[in-house]
TrEMBL record:
Residues 63-135 form the HAT C-terminal dimerisation domain. This is HAT C-terminal dimerisation domain-containing protein. It comes from Emiliania huxleyi (strain CCMP1516). GO terms for molecular function: protein dimerization activity. Signal peptide: none annotated. It comes from the Eukaryota. InterPro entries: HATC_C_dom, RNaseH-like_sf.
């Protein structure tokens, strides 16, 4: 559940930043503890509780059957309309590819680091270098996406 709450916080923070009049300034000022973000996260959690309890439309047998047969994003689009925050978050989460490519990339970087320095480096140091490499990779992607948003 902790991971889910972190996803709610990050996506709600992103939504608050993008909805502000000045996203560049909001990017620097807003945090997950900002009142607007906290209120949005609380609403998302309440909506998730409705889904988890199978209240309302989620208790119908046909809805449960369609959950097994439909694409997840289409199912949320059809049955999640009364939960606006959760139905906005679900497609973003479900659109993420479930692949081993990130792990393979980490192992590749780890192999390059260990290969270059042989056995002189401890595993902890190598792990920290892989983390730094990936953090720089993510930072580059984020800065590129912000650049693309401004010029699109």
């Amino acid at each position: 559940m902790e991971g889910l709450m972190i996803v709610f916080e990050r996506l709600c923070l992103r939504d608050e930043i993008m909805a502000s009049a000045n996203p560049e300034q909001a990017w620097r000022e807003l945090t997950t503890t900002s009142p607007g973000v906290v209120a949005r996260v609380a609403q998302a959690e309440r909506e998730f509780a409705v889904y988890q309890r199978r209240d309302g439309v989620f208790s119908r047998p046909s809805v449960l059957e369609n959950a097994k047969n439909m694409e997840p994003a289409a199912w949320w689009g059809m049955y999640g309309k009364h939960l606006p925050l959760l139905s906005a978050i679900a497609p973003r989460v479900l659109a993420q590819a479930a692949a081993a490519s990130a792990a393979e990339r980490n192992w590749s970087v780890y192999g390059q680091i260990q290969g270059a320095h042989k056995s002189r480096m401890s595993h902890g140091t190598a792990d920290k270098l892989v983390f730094c490499h990936e953090a720089m990779h993510v930072q580059k992607k984020v800065s590129m996406s912000r650049w693309l948003v401004w010029f699109s």
